[in-house]
Amino acid sequence: MGEQNGDSVVATESGRVRGGGDDRVRHFRGIPYAAAPINEKRWAAPQPVQSWTGVREATNPGPVCVQPEASDMPSGVPQSEDCLTLDVTVPTGPGENRPVMVWLPGGGFITGAGSIYDPTRLARTGDIVVVTVNYRLGVYGFFAHPELGDSNFGLQDQMAALRWVRANIAHFGGDPAQVTLAGASAGAMSACTLMTAPEARNLFQRAIVQSGSCRTSHPAGALGEGVGAISTWQPLATIQGAAQALAGHLSCADLACLRALPAETLLPYTAMFPLVAYETPLVPREPSNAFAAGQASNIALLRGNTFDEHAEFTVSAYPEPITADRYSAILKTAFGNAADHVESSYPVDEFSSPTAAASRVFSDRDWICGSWRSGRDHAERAPTYVYTFTDSTAPTPGGNPVPALVQPATVHGSEVYFLFDFHDGPQLTSAQRSLAEQLAGYWSRFIRTGDPNGDSAPTWPRLDASDLALSLNPDTIEPVNMRTTHHCDLWDA
Protein backbone atom coordinates (compact mmCIF):
# COMPACT_ATOMS: atom_id res chain seq x y z
CA MET A 1 0.00 0.00 0.00
CA GLY A 2 1.70 3.15 -1.21
CA GLU A 3 1.66 6.44 0.66
CA GLN A 4 1.45 9.72 -1.27
CA ASN A 5 1.15 12.97 0.69
CA GLY A 6 -0.87 11.30 3.39
CA ASP A 7 -3.09 9.52 0.88
CA SER A 8 -2.96 5.82 0.04
CA VAL A 9 -2.83 4.39 -3.46
CA VAL A 10 -3.65 0.71 -3.85
CA ALA A 11 -3.75 -1.39 -7.01
CA THR A 12 -6.86 -3.54 -7.40
CA GLU A 13 -7.68 -5.97 -10.21
CA SER A 14 -9.73 -3.24 -11.92
CA GLY A 15 -7.34 -0.33 -11.41
CA ARG A 16 -5.65 1.83 -8.81
CA VAL A 17 -7.59 3.67 -6.09
CA ARG A 18 -6.58 6.51 -3.80
CA GLY A 19 -8.04 6.67 -0.30
CA GLY A 20 -7.63 9.07 2.57
CA GLY A 21 -7.74 9.05 6.33
CA ASP A 22 -5.92 10.14 9.45
CA ASP A 23 -3.38 8.79 11.93
CA ARG A 24 -5.76 6.00 12.92
CA VAL A 25 -7.10 4.47 9.69
CA ARG A 26 -7.20 4.77 5.92
CA HIS A 27 -10.59 4.73 4.19
CA PHE A 28 -11.08 3.62 0.59
CA ARG A 29 -14.64 4.52 -0.30
CA GLY A 30 -16.98 3.94 -3.19
CA ILE A 31 -14.94 1.18 -4.85
CA PRO A 32 -17.08 -0.61 -7.46
CA TYR A 33 -17.13 -4.38 -7.03
CA ALA A 34 -19.58 -5.04 -9.89
CA ALA A 35 -20.89 -3.25 -12.95
CA ALA A 36 -23.90 -0.94 -12.72
CA PRO A 37 -27.03 -3.17 -12.58
CA ILE A 38 -29.03 -1.03 -15.01
CA ASN A 39 -30.84 -1.56 -18.32
CA GLU A 40 -30.41 -5.22 -19.34
CA LYS A 41 -28.36 -5.82 -16.15
CA ARG A 42 -31.35 -4.94 -13.94
CA TRP A 43 -32.42 -8.23 -12.30
CA ALA A 44 -29.35 -10.06 -13.49
CA ALA A 45 -26.38 -11.56 -11.69
CA PRO A 46 -23.74 -8.90 -10.95
CA GLN A 47 -21.29 -8.48 -13.80
CA PRO A 48 -17.55 -7.66 -13.67
CA VAL A 49 -16.40 -4.07 -13.31
CA GLN A 50 -14.88 -2.41 -16.35
CA SER A 51 -11.25 -1.58 -15.61
CA TRP A 52 -10.07 2.03 -15.50
CA THR A 53 -6.79 3.75 -16.18
CA GLY A 54 -5.02 6.19 -13.91
CA VAL A 55 -5.90 6.51 -10.22
CA ARG A 56 -9.54 6.51 -9.15
CA GLU A 57 -10.37 8.79 -6.24
CA ALA A 58 -11.82 6.70 -3.40
CA THR A 59 -12.29 9.30 -0.70
CA ASN A 60 -16.11 9.57 -0.88
CA PRO A 61 -18.72 6.81 -0.59
CA GLY A 62 -20.76 5.85 -3.62
CA PRO A 63 -24.51 6.48 -3.79
CA VAL A 64 -26.72 4.19 -1.75
CA CYS A 65 -28.98 1.76 -3.56
CA VAL A 66 -32.44 3.12 -4.43
CA GLN A 67 -34.73 2.85 -1.40
CA PRO A 68 -37.56 4.59 0.44
CA GLU A 69 -36.91 7.02 3.28
CA ALA A 70 -35.75 5.49 6.55
CA SER A 71 -35.20 7.07 9.97
CA ASP A 72 -31.64 5.75 10.25
CA MET A 73 -30.54 6.92 6.79
CA PRO A 74 -28.91 10.38 6.79
CA SER A 75 -30.90 12.91 4.80
CA GLY A 76 -29.61 14.01 1.44
CA VAL A 77 -27.55 10.90 0.71
CA PRO A 78 -27.48 10.36 -3.08
CA GLN A 79 -29.30 7.28 -4.39
CA SER A 80 -28.84 5.36 -7.62
CA GLU A 81 -29.33 1.97 -9.21
CA ASP A 82 -25.60 2.23 -9.95
CA CYS A 83 -24.72 1.47 -6.34
CA LEU A 84 -22.66 -1.72 -6.18
CA THR A 85 -19.74 -0.28 -4.25
CA LEU A 86 -17.92 -1.09 -1.05
CA ASP A 87 -15.74 0.77 1.43
CA VAL A 88 -12.50 -0.60 2.90
CA THR A 89 -11.15 0.64 6.25
CA VAL A 90 -7.55 -0.26 7.13
CA PRO A 91 -5.56 0.55 10.29
CA THR A 92 -2.59 2.83 9.70
CA GLY A 93 0.92 1.55 10.23
CA PRO A 94 2.68 -1.48 8.86
CA GLY A 95 0.76 -4.70 8.66
CA GLU A 96 -0.25 -7.47 6.32
CA ASN A 97 -2.42 -10.57 6.49
CA ARG A 98 -4.78 -8.80 8.87
CA PRO A 99 -8.10 -10.57 9.51
CA VAL A 100 -11.02 -9.16 7.52
CA MET A 101 -14.64 -8.47 8.45
CA VAL A 102 -17.17 -7.99 5.64
CA TRP A 103 -20.22 -6.12 6.99
CA LEU A 104 -23.70 -6.49 5.47
CA PRO A 105 -26.10 -3.73 6.61
CA GLY A 106 -29.66 -4.33 7.74
CA GLY A 107 -32.89 -2.58 6.81
CA GLY A 108 -35.45 -5.27 6.18
CA PHE A 109 -34.03 -5.93 2.70
CA ILE A 110 -35.62 -2.67 1.49
CA THR A 111 -33.42 0.03 3.10
CA GLY A 112 -29.86 0.37 4.34
CA ALA A 113 -26.31 0.92 3.11
CA GLY A 114 -22.89 -0.24 4.24
CA SER A 115 -21.47 3.17 3.42
CA ILE A 116 -23.20 4.86 6.40
CA TYR A 117 -21.24 2.71 8.90
CA ASP A 118 -17.94 4.06 10.18
CA PRO A 119 -15.85 1.11 11.42
CA THR A 120 -12.85 3.17 12.57
CA ARG A 121 -13.02 2.07 16.22
CA LEU A 122 -13.46 -1.60 15.36
CA ALA A 123 -10.66 -1.60 12.78
CA ARG A 124 -8.29 0.23 15.09
CA THR A 125 -9.12 -1.72 18.26
CA GLY A 126 -8.91 -5.10 16.61
CA ASP A 127 -6.17 -4.30 14.05
CA ILE A 128 -8.46 -5.71 11.38
CA VAL A 129 -9.58 -4.69 7.89
CA VAL A 130 -13.30 -3.87 7.63
CA VAL A 131 -15.25 -3.94 4.37
CA THR A 132 -18.79 -2.46 4.32
CA VAL A 133 -21.03 -3.36 1.38
CA ASN A 134 -23.93 -1.78 -0.53
CA TYR A 135 -26.25 -4.30 -2.21
CA ARG A 136 -29.48 -4.09 -4.20
CA LEU A 137 -32.66 -3.82 -2.14
CA GLY A 138 -36.39 -4.39 -2.43
CA VAL A 139 -37.83 -4.50 -5.91
CA TYR A 140 -34.37 -3.98 -7.41
CA GLY A 141 -32.68 -6.75 -5.40
CA PHE A 142 -35.28 -9.37 -4.47
CA PHE A 143 -37.67 -9.28 -7.42
CA ALA A 144 -38.44 -12.52 -9.24
CA HIS A 145 -40.12 -13.20 -12.59
CA PRO A 146 -40.89 -16.38 -14.53
CA GLU A 147 -38.69 -15.16 -17.39
CA LEU A 148 -35.75 -14.87 -14.98
CA GLY A 149 -35.96 -18.19 -13.17
CA ASP A 150 -34.00 -16.59 -10.34
CA SER A 151 -34.14 -13.95 -7.61
CA ASN A 152 -31.98 -12.89 -4.65
CA PHE A 153 -29.94 -10.45 -6.71
CA GLY A 154 -29.07 -8.61 -3.49
CA LEU A 155 -27.55 -11.82 -2.12
CA GLN A 156 -25.75 -12.34 -5.41
CA ASP A 157 -24.29 -8.85 -4.95
CA GLN A 158 -23.02 -9.86 -1.51
CA MET A 159 -21.37 -12.91 -3.11
CA ALA A 160 -19.74 -10.66 -5.71
CA ALA A 161 -18.41 -8.45 -2.90
CA LEU A 162 -16.95 -11.51 -1.16
CA ARG A 163 -15.28 -12.57 -4.41
CA TRP A 164 -13.88 -9.05 -4.74
CA VAL A 165 -12.47 -9.36 -1.22
CA ARG A 166 -10.87 -12.71 -2.02
CA ALA A 167 -9.22 -11.25 -5.14
CA ASN A 168 -8.19 -7.84 -3.82
CA ILE A 169 -8.02 -7.57 -0.06
CA ALA A 170 -4.38 -8.66 0.19
CA HIS A 171 -3.44 -5.39 -1.57
CA PHE A 172 -5.00 -3.57 1.42
CA GLY A 173 -3.09 -5.69 3.95
CA GLY A 174 -5.95 -8.12 4.56
CA ASP A 175 -5.83 -11.91 4.58
CA PRO A 176 -8.25 -13.41 2.01
CA ALA A 177 -8.13 -16.70 3.93
CA GLN A 178 -9.34 -15.05 7.18
CA VAL A 179 -12.68 -13.46 6.27
CA THR A 180 -15.60 -13.12 8.69
CA LEU A 181 -19.01 -12.39 7.16
CA ALA A 182 -21.06 -10.26 9.57
CA GLY A 183 -24.32 -8.36 9.60
CA ALA A 184 -27.29 -7.20 11.64
CA SER A 185 -31.02 -7.69 11.01
CA ALA A 186 -31.40 -8.28 7.24
CA GLY A 187 -27.61 -8.38 7.08
CA ALA A 188 -27.62 -11.15 9.68
CA MET A 189 -30.30 -13.05 7.77
CA SER A 190 -28.17 -12.65 4.64
CA ALA A 191 -25.10 -13.99 6.42
CA CYS A 192 -26.84 -17.08 7.79
CA THR A 193 -28.47 -17.69 4.38
CA LEU A 194 -25.06 -17.60 2.69
CA MET A 195 -23.83 -20.09 5.29
CA THR A 196 -26.26 -22.55 3.66
CA ALA A 197 -25.46 -21.59 0.04
CA PRO A 198 -23.21 -24.15 -1.69
CA GLU A 199 -21.82 -21.42 -3.98
CA ALA A 200 -20.62 -19.42 -0.96
CA ARG A 201 -18.44 -22.17 0.52
CA ASN A 202 -14.86 -21.05 1.13
CA LEU A 203 -15.65 -17.35 0.54
CA PHE A 204 -15.65 -16.73 4.32
CA GLN A 205 -14.27 -18.63 7.28
CA ARG A 206 -16.36 -17.29 10.20
CA ALA A 207 -19.73 -15.57 10.64
CA ILE A 208 -21.32 -13.03 13.00
CA VAL A 209 -25.13 -12.95 13.00
CA GLN A 210 -26.70 -10.09 15.00
CA SER A 211 -30.41 -9.49 15.67
CA GLY A 212 -31.69 -11.95 13.11
CA SER A 213 -31.35 -15.61 12.27
CA CYS A 214 -32.46 -18.11 9.67
CA ARG A 215 -35.26 -19.14 12.07
CA THR A 216 -36.63 -15.62 12.55
CA SER A 217 -40.36 -15.63 11.76
CA HIS A 218 -43.56 -14.07 13.06
CA PRO A 219 -46.89 -15.73 13.92
CA ALA A 220 -50.23 -14.23 12.98
CA GLY A 221 -50.77 -10.87 14.68
CA ALA A 222 -47.14 -10.31 15.71
CA LEU A 223 -46.81 -7.53 13.13
CA GLY A 224 -50.32 -6.17 13.50
CA GLU A 225 -53.98 -7.03 13.64
CA GLY A 226 -54.99 -8.93 10.54
CA VAL A 227 -51.38 -9.58 9.50
CA GLY A 228 -50.82 -13.27 8.94
CA ALA A 229 -47.86 -15.43 9.86
CA ILE A 230 -44.76 -14.55 7.86
CA SER A 231 -41.23 -15.77 7.31
CA THR A 232 -38.53 -13.90 5.40
CA TRP A 233 -37.81 -17.01 3.30
CA GLN A 234 -40.39 -17.99 0.70
CA PRO A 235 -40.48 -20.38 -2.27
CA LEU A 236 -39.40 -18.75 -5.52
CA ALA A 237 -42.88 -19.26 -6.97
CA THR A 238 -44.40 -17.08 -4.23
CA ILE A 239 -42.19 -14.13 -5.10
CA GLN A 240 -42.74 -14.71 -8.81
CA GLY A 241 -46.47 -14.42 -8.15
CA ALA A 242 -46.00 -11.02 -6.50
CA ALA A 243 -43.85 -9.94 -9.46
CA GLN A 244 -46.48 -10.98 -11.98
CA ALA A 245 -49.10 -9.02 -10.04
CA LEU A 246 -46.86 -5.94 -10.16
CA ALA A 247 -46.19 -6.43 -13.88
CA GLY A 248 -49.93 -6.48 -14.53
CA HIS A 249 -50.43 -3.36 -12.44
CA LEU A 250 -47.72 -1.59 -14.45
CA SER A 251 -49.15 -2.88 -17.76
CA CYS A 252 -45.91 -4.69 -18.62
CA ALA A 253 -46.38 -7.91 -20.57
CA ASP A 254 -42.76 -8.99 -20.37
CA LEU A 255 -39.44 -8.49 -18.65
CA ALA A 256 -38.15 -6.11 -21.32
CA CYS A 257 -40.95 -3.68 -20.50
CA LEU A 258 -40.17 -3.85 -16.77
CA ARG A 259 -36.46 -3.28 -17.36
CA ALA A 260 -37.24 -0.20 -19.42
CA LEU A 261 -39.13 1.47 -16.56
CA PRO A 262 -37.35 4.29 -14.70
CA ALA A 263 -36.07 3.38 -11.25
CA GLU A 264 -38.41 5.94 -9.67
CA THR A 265 -41.43 4.20 -11.22
CA LEU A 266 -40.56 1.01 -9.35
CA LEU A 267 -39.67 2.62 -6.03
CA PRO A 268 -43.25 2.87 -4.65
CA TYR A 269 -43.52 -0.93 -4.94
CA THR A 270 -40.19 -1.84 -3.36
CA ALA A 271 -41.78 -2.85 -0.05
CA MET A 272 -43.53 -5.70 -1.89
CA PHE A 273 -40.18 -7.49 -2.13
CA PRO A 274 -38.56 -7.86 1.32
CA LEU A 275 -38.32 -11.64 1.00
CA VAL A 276 -35.55 -14.11 0.20
CA ALA A 277 -36.41 -16.85 -2.29
CA TYR A 278 -35.41 -20.46 -1.83
CA GLU A 279 -35.60 -23.23 -4.43
CA THR A 280 -33.15 -21.09 -6.41
CA PRO A 281 -29.62 -21.82 -7.66
CA LEU A 282 -28.08 -19.80 -4.82
CA VAL A 283 -30.50 -20.87 -2.05
CA PRO A 284 -31.67 -24.36 -2.98
CA ARG A 285 -33.21 -25.18 0.43
CA GLU A 286 -35.01 -23.17 3.09
CA PRO A 287 -32.09 -22.07 5.30
CA SER A 288 -33.65 -23.05 8.64
CA ASN A 289 -34.04 -26.61 7.37
CA ALA A 290 -30.48 -26.57 6.07
CA PHE A 291 -29.20 -25.59 9.54
CA ALA A 292 -31.31 -28.28 11.21
CA ALA A 293 -29.99 -30.89 8.78
CA GLY A 294 -26.38 -29.91 9.34
CA GLN A 295 -25.97 -28.52 5.83
CA ALA A 296 -24.66 -25.07 6.83
CA SER A 297 -20.95 -24.32 6.61
CA ASN A 298 -19.15 -25.79 9.60
CA ILE A 299 -17.50 -22.50 10.59
CA ALA A 300 -17.19 -20.69 13.90
CA LEU A 301 -20.30 -18.63 14.60
CA LEU A 302 -20.97 -15.68 16.92
CA ARG A 303 -24.63 -14.76 17.13
CA GLY A 304 -27.08 -12.97 19.38
CA ASN A 305 -29.89 -10.54 19.96
CA THR A 306 -30.96 -7.49 21.85
CA PHE A 307 -33.11 -8.31 24.86
CA ASP A 308 -36.28 -6.70 23.49
CA GLU A 309 -36.05 -7.21 19.73
CA HIS A 310 -39.77 -6.87 19.15
CA ALA A 311 -40.51 -3.90 21.43
CA GLU A 312 -40.74 -1.21 18.74
CA PHE A 313 -42.44 -3.61 16.32
CA THR A 314 -45.11 -4.31 18.96
CA VAL A 315 -45.83 -0.62 19.51
CA SER A 316 -45.92 -0.03 15.75
CA ALA A 317 -48.33 -2.94 15.31
CA TYR A 318 -50.53 -1.89 18.26
CA PRO A 319 -50.14 1.87 18.76
CA GLU A 320 -53.06 2.01 21.19
CA PRO A 321 -52.31 0.52 24.61
CA ILE A 322 -53.12 -3.20 24.67
CA THR A 323 -55.57 -4.20 27.41
CA ALA A 324 -55.32 -7.45 29.37
CA ASP A 325 -58.23 -8.91 27.41
CA ARG A 326 -56.67 -7.81 24.13
CA TYR A 327 -53.39 -9.42 25.18
CA SER A 328 -55.18 -12.76 25.61
CA ALA A 329 -56.82 -12.34 22.23
CA ILE A 330 -53.50 -11.55 20.53
CA LEU A 331 -51.99 -14.71 22.00
CA LYS A 332 -55.01 -16.71 20.82
CA THR A 333 -54.54 -15.39 17.29
CA ALA A 334 -50.84 -16.17 17.34
CA PHE A 335 -50.80 -19.53 19.11
CA GLY A 336 -54.28 -21.03 18.94
CA ASN A 337 -54.83 -23.81 21.44
CA ALA A 338 -51.40 -23.16 22.99
CA ALA A 339 -52.33 -19.58 23.93
CA ASP A 340 -53.24 -20.42 27.54
CA HIS A 341 -49.93 -22.20 28.01
CA VAL A 342 -48.08 -19.17 26.63
CA GLU A 343 -50.02 -16.77 28.83
CA SER A 344 -49.28 -18.83 31.95
CA SER A 345 -45.58 -18.51 31.11
CA TYR A 346 -45.93 -14.77 30.44
CA PRO A 347 -48.65 -13.59 32.89
CA VAL A 348 -49.60 -10.02 32.20
CA ASP A 349 -49.25 -8.90 35.83
CA GLU A 350 -45.49 -9.61 35.68
CA PHE A 351 -44.97 -6.80 33.16
CA SER A 352 -45.26 -3.04 33.23
CA SER A 353 -48.13 -3.21 30.71
CA PRO A 354 -49.91 -5.74 28.49
CA THR A 355 -48.04 -4.15 25.57
CA ALA A 356 -44.75 -4.97 27.30
CA ALA A 357 -45.95 -8.53 27.88
CA ALA A 358 -46.71 -8.94 24.17
CA SER A 359 -43.32 -7.48 23.33
CA ARG A 360 -41.62 -10.03 25.59
CA VAL A 361 -43.54 -12.94 24.04
CA PHE A 362 -42.68 -12.01 20.47
CA SER A 363 -39.10 -11.03 21.33
CA ASP A 364 -38.50 -14.46 22.83
CA ARG A 365 -40.50 -16.51 20.33
CA ASP A 366 -39.72 -14.73 17.05
CA TRP A 367 -36.13 -13.65 17.62
CA ILE A 368 -34.18 -14.86 20.62
CA CYS A 369 -35.15 -18.51 20.97
CA GLY A 370 -35.11 -19.07 17.22
CA SER A 371 -31.56 -17.75 17.17
CA TRP A 372 -30.70 -19.93 20.17
CA ARG A 373 -32.18 -23.02 18.48
CA SER A 374 -30.29 -22.35 15.29
CA GLY A 375 -27.16 -21.85 17.39
CA ARG A 376 -27.74 -25.16 19.17
CA ASP A 377 -28.04 -26.92 15.82
CA HIS A 378 -24.79 -25.32 14.68
CA ALA A 379 -22.94 -25.91 17.95
CA GLU A 380 -23.06 -29.65 17.31
CA ARG A 381 -20.65 -29.12 14.41
CA ALA A 382 -18.65 -25.94 15.03
CA PRO A 383 -17.76 -23.46 17.82
CA THR A 384 -20.76 -21.25 18.56
CA TYR A 385 -21.04 -18.26 20.91
CA VAL A 386 -24.35 -16.59 21.78
CA TYR A 387 -25.04 -13.21 23.42
CA THR A 388 -27.92 -11.06 24.57
CA PHE A 389 -27.41 -7.30 24.60
CA THR A 390 -29.25 -5.86 27.58
CA ASP A 391 -28.47 -2.13 27.81
CA SER A 392 -31.95 -0.59 27.99
CA THR A 393 -30.43 2.91 27.79
CA ALA A 394 -28.75 2.19 24.43
CA PRO A 395 -29.59 4.45 21.47
CA THR A 396 -32.43 3.36 19.19
CA PRO A 397 -31.82 3.05 15.44
CA GLY A 398 -34.44 5.67 14.62
CA GLY A 399 -33.16 8.05 17.28
CA ASN A 400 -36.51 8.13 19.10
CA PRO A 401 -36.90 7.31 22.79
CA VAL A 402 -38.10 3.83 23.67
CA PRO A 403 -41.93 3.97 23.74
CA ALA A 404 -43.22 4.37 27.28
CA LEU A 405 -45.52 1.33 27.01
CA VAL A 406 -42.55 -1.05 26.72
CA GLN A 407 -39.93 0.67 28.88
CA PRO A 408 -37.38 -0.38 29.87
CA ALA A 409 -36.36 -2.11 26.64
CA THR A 410 -33.24 -2.83 24.59
CA VAL A 411 -34.58 -2.53 21.07
CA HIS A 412 -33.74 -4.15 17.75
CA GLY A 413 -30.41 -3.05 16.33
CA SER A 414 -29.25 -0.98 19.28
CA GLU A 415 -26.00 -2.90 19.81
CA VAL A 416 -24.75 -1.74 16.41
CA TYR A 417 -23.97 1.69 17.92
CA PHE A 418 -21.42 -0.01 20.19
CA LEU A 419 -19.48 -1.35 17.20
CA PHE A 420 -19.77 1.46 14.64
CA ASP A 421 -19.98 5.24 14.54
CA PHE A 422 -22.47 7.14 12.37
CA HIS A 423 -22.51 10.65 10.95
CA ASP A 424 -24.47 12.80 13.42
CA GLY A 425 -25.07 9.63 15.44
CA PRO A 426 -25.75 9.47 19.18
CA GLN A 427 -23.00 9.89 21.75
CA LEU A 428 -22.41 7.07 24.19
CA THR A 429 -22.01 7.64 27.92
CA SER A 430 -18.71 6.78 29.60
CA ALA A 431 -20.18 3.48 30.85
CA GLN A 432 -21.45 2.70 27.38
CA ARG A 433 -18.06 3.54 25.85
CA SER A 434 -16.50 1.04 28.23
CA LEU A 435 -19.00 -1.59 27.08
CA ALA A 436 -18.30 -0.64 23.45
CA GLU A 437 -14.60 -1.34 24.05
CA GLN A 438 -15.52 -4.75 25.44
CA LEU A 439 -17.70 -5.52 22.40
CA ALA A 440 -14.98 -4.41 20.01
CA GLY A 441 -12.57 -6.69 21.84
CA TYR A 442 -14.87 -9.71 21.78
CA TRP A 443 -15.80 -9.19 18.12
CA SER A 444 -12.23 -8.59 16.90
CA ARG A 445 -10.85 -11.60 18.80
CA PHE A 446 -13.53 -13.76 17.24
CA ILE A 447 -12.71 -12.34 13.80
CA ARG A 448 -9.03 -13.12 14.42
CA THR A 449 -9.29 -16.59 15.99
CA GLY A 450 -12.88 -17.86 16.00
CA ASP A 451 -12.97 -17.47 19.79
CA PRO A 452 -14.04 -14.14 21.43
CA ASN A 453 -12.22 -14.84 24.70
CA GLY A 454 -8.95 -13.31 25.85
CA ASP A 455 -7.38 -10.10 27.16
CA SER A 456 -8.77 -10.67 30.69
CA ALA A 457 -12.34 -10.06 29.49
CA PRO A 458 -15.16 -11.88 31.30
CA THR A 459 -15.31 -15.42 29.98
CA TRP A 460 -17.76 -16.02 27.14
CA PRO A 461 -18.91 -19.65 27.40
CA ARG A 462 -19.10 -21.66 24.23
CA LEU A 463 -22.69 -22.79 23.58
CA ASP A 464 -23.15 -26.38 24.72
CA ALA A 465 -25.54 -28.43 26.80
CA SER A 466 -25.45 -25.77 29.54
CA ASP A 467 -27.27 -23.36 27.16
CA LEU A 468 -25.25 -20.43 28.43
CA ALA A 469 -25.03 -17.16 26.53
CA LEU A 470 -23.26 -13.95 27.52
CA SER A 471 -25.34 -11.01 28.75
CA LEU A 472 -23.72 -7.72 27.67
CA ASN A 473 -24.57 -4.71 29.83
CA PRO A 474 -22.66 -1.63 31.05
CA ASP A 475 -23.20 -2.73 34.64
CA THR A 476 -22.15 -6.34 34.28
CA ILE A 477 -21.11 -8.92 31.71
CA GLU A 478 -22.09 -12.39 32.83
CA PRO A 479 -23.38 -15.76 31.58
CA VAL A 480 -27.14 -16.25 31.33
CA ASN A 481 -29.18 -19.41 30.77
CA MET A 482 -31.28 -19.06 27.63
CA ARG A 483 -33.79 -21.76 28.52
CA THR A 484 -34.80 -20.19 31.82
CA THR A 485 -34.42 -16.50 30.91
CA HIS A 486 -36.38 -16.62 27.65
CA HIS A 487 -38.57 -19.74 28.05
CA CYS A 488 -36.76 -21.34 25.13
CA ASP A 489 -37.99 -24.81 26.15
CA LEU A 490 -41.53 -23.57 25.55
CA TRP A 491 -40.73 -22.17 22.13
CA ASP A 492 -38.57 -25.12 21.18
CA ALA A 493 -41.59 -27.35 21.76
From TrEMBL:
Per UniProt, residues of the Carboxylesterase type B domain are 7-491
Tell me which Gene3D superfamilies the record gives. alpha/beta hydrolase (3.40.50.1820)
Annotated InterPro entries: AB_hydrolase_fold, CarbesteraseB, Carboxylesterase_B_AS, Type-B_Carboxylest/Lipase
* Keywords of this entry: Hydrolase
- The EC class name is hydrolase
Do you know which Pfam families this protein is assigned to?
Answer: COesterase
Highest taxon of the lineage: Bacteria
Q: Where is this region: Disordered?
A: 1-23
What's its EC? 3.1.1.-
Q: Please report which protein family the annotation says this sequence is part of.
A: Belongs to the type-B carboxylesterase/lipase family.
Question: This protein is called what?
Answer: Carboxylic ester hydrolase
Name the species this protein comes from.
Answer: Nocardia goodfellowii
